[in-house]
Amino acid sequence: MTNTFAELGVPAKLTDVLERDGKIAPFPIQADTLPDTLAGRDVLGRGKTGSGKTLALSLPVAARPANRKGRA
Prior knowledge:
Distance between the termini: 31 Å
Shape: globular
Radius of gyration: 12 Å
Largest sheet: none
Strand content: under 5%
Oligomer: single chain
Number of helices: 4
């Protein structure tokens, strides 16, 4: 299992924000889906409330502008 969001490929700008909010280790749904969604692939995931689905969905969306050149 992956220990950090950075190891999954989440950009440093986002991992810094996650760490400040106390989110260090990804939940299983995040570890299972983020490598594919960050690479632009479609995924299908299902889990209970509180399993981390929303963050698994939103991080790749937020990562696109964070990865653009010239962005601060």
